[in-house]
Write a structure and sequence with these properties.
With about 375 residues, the protein is an alpha/beta fold. The chain has twelve helices and eleven strands. Helix 8 links the parallel strand 7 and strand 8. The longest helix has 18 residues, at about 70-85. The protein is globular, with a radius of gyration of 25 Å.
């Protein structure tokens, strides 16, 4: 009976346009009420309701007067959404085995984006843990460090490592090189406070997707580029180098993104890349070149694992092909994992996380493991940068 009632309630919310989590803007439920109220008397009879809602009429008619009023409609939606909210996992409430230290300022400023979240195991397996750092995507104009919790907590919960998620100024706040200055300042802060938090300063892995993939790739290739360090924070003497990089479908050469078919006109003045640079890509070639990880490759760069879908409509797959080729030509260890048929993230195959784990096992934990190299088949569920 409970299942049937739940389905009827679900049907009601679907008809009202209130099912949560949809990527599509939904109609205001008050508009549906007015549309259903054919005689415009401010209340709904059973006969006026759509079939998906009619079966739930007994629960909707709270005062049992045989009608469904506008107030009853609003109250039902409010209660349903509160129950749905309370039933969802709270991403800001870590599991018992993880300590979350959030919104730590790393740049000695008041800017809300220049903050990081640090995740520590309550029962660390060693006195000096490696650190896995996540940098979010969002086309450099959206996204938030809070999204890194889901990626970091599984690592940290094992007790084998610590985790961090970095926020950075978006293109609406500041243009290049603000983004990499922020990321490097955060890495320096983490290294400067490593002993305090039981972290090994010599073992930092970085993971990022899309625009975050671009920024972790920059960290992996520009550790020796003084001009990109910036002077933020109190730990300017610390290194911003990282041990290894997991680059998930990040742009690598901004000047060539428009050379292959894409759903974005990358050279347009309003493209994500142009907004981040502060002007159209091809009109600011020096800045675009400086903001391209591929520009800064040297033989002593960190090892790379690159994941990219072959059908990515936003960041062309060719970006990772050319980047991987350039890394290997310079003598840098790089493995490009082709996601056959994959779009821009949201990959369905669980094999992908196994590849990431194997890569970290080798380069962060020093384990002797083989990293499979064959392509992975897995489509995409979302297309967000």
């Amino acid at each position: 009976m409970k299942t049937r009632c739940g389905l009827m309630a679900f049907s009601f919310l679907l008809c009202c346009g209130w099912i949560m989590g949809s990527a599509v803007a939904q109609p205001d439920p008050r508009e549906n009420f007015d549309r259903w109220d054919r005689n415009q008397d401010g209340q709904l009879d059973r006969e006026e309701l759509p079939p998906g809602v009619c079966g739930n009429f007994g629960r909707l008619d709270a005062n049992r007067d045989g009608h469904f009023s506008r107030d009853e409609h609003s109250e039902f939606v409010r209660r349903f959404l509160m129950r749905a909210r309370d039933a969802r996992p709270n991403p800001r409430r870590p599991p018992d085995e993880v300590i979350a230290l959030r919104d730590i300022p790393y740049a000695d400023t008041e800017h809300p984006r220049q903050r990081l979240d640090l995740y520590l195991p309550k029962e660390p397996q060693s006195e000096s843990l490696p650190l896995v750092v996540f940098i979010h995507g969002g086309a450099w104009r959206s996204g938030d460090k809070a999204g890194g919790a889901g990626r970091m907590i599984p690592f940290v919960g094992s007790g084998e490592c610590a985790g961090a998620s970095i926020g950075y100024r978006l293109s609406g706040d500041a243009t290049w090189p603000a983004q990499i200055h922020d990321c490097k300042a955060a890495i320096r802060w983490l290294r400067g406070n490593a002993a305090k938090h039981g972290i090994d300063p010599e073992r930092f892995a970085v993971i990022g997707s899309s625009a975050g993939g671009h920024l972790v790739a920059m960290l992996g290739t520009s550790g020796d580029v003084a001009a990109l360090e910036g002077s933020l924070g109190e730990f300017v003497a610390e290194s911003s180098r990282v041990t290894c990089v997991v680059d998930e479908f990040g742009p690598a050469n901004l000047l060539t993104m428009g050379d292959v078919p894409s759903s974005i006109e990358h050279n347009a003045a309003d493209s994500p890349e142009s907004r981040m640079l502060g002007g159209a890509v091809q009109e600011h070639k020096d800045r675009a070149r400086e903001a391209s990880p591929q520009t800064h490759i040297t033989a002593d760069d960190a090892p790379f694992l690159i994941l990219h879908g072959t059908e990515d409509p936003l960041v062309p797959y060719d970006q990772s092909v050319q980047f991987d080729r350039a890394l290997r030509a310079a003598g840098v260890e790089s493995l490009l994992v082709k996601i056959e048929g994959g779009g821009h993230g949201g990959f369905k195959s669980p094999v992908i996380e196994n590849r990431v784990k194997a890569f970290l096992d080798r380069h962060l934990f020093g384990k002797t493991v083989e990293i499979p190299t064959e392509p992975i088949t897995g489509g995409a569920r979302r297309n967000q940068r």
